[in-house]
User: Fold this.
Amino acid sequence: MVGLRHAGNPRIPDTTVRRLPVYLRVLSELSGRQQEVTSAELAERTGYSSEQIRKDFAYFGALGTRGVGYRVDLLQRQIRSILGLDRPIPAAVIGAGNLGTALARYSILQDRDIQVVALFDVDPRRVGTDIEGVKVYPTEELPAVVRQLGIRMAIVAVPPEAAQAVVDAAVRAGVTAFLNFSPVKLQAPRHVHIQNIDLSLELQSLAYYVSARSLP
Assistant:
């Protein structure tokens, strides 16, 4: 399975990486309330099995004590370090329309780990404005701004016909991870990770659970 490498360990499955932020959220909720947590408690709070949790943690070495569990503060720091969240990560939002603006505003106001430091758009009415103090740049300045601000992550919220071109430009400038909201399959080098979120598909699949209630 395609995944991430960590400190010389075998390749880490993407599914494991996706579960780490869930563990981190639970640990953040427990922080200050209790000093230790067991895999059984984590299983109850996350919905994952104890076995799956222990298997996930085993990829990264001994994170706990057998028969005792895990220190909440230490495990929290370890997972943050594994995810690279022990330092701020500068990010960009490409596309400052309604969706891009909403995503940027949420990240700027709510996320202390991923810092949106720039937005990009082709609309001259948006260029030069700011979202919660973060400037909207013209898309043609993307390569220079990405290099200047050290941006390595980007949220893509542009029309599908423009998505591949902006991703290509961002990759050439050094971006290696994308959260893509454009409903199009993007091409990128092997070292670049693209996570796709298609709102239309998600809503259409969700409709099943509404319509299924009316079926005999």
User: Anything to note?
Assistant: Confidence is low (pLDDT under 50) at residues 1-9. The first helix runs from residue 14 to 30. The radius of gyration is 20 Å. The CA atoms of residues 24 and 76 lie 6 Å apart.
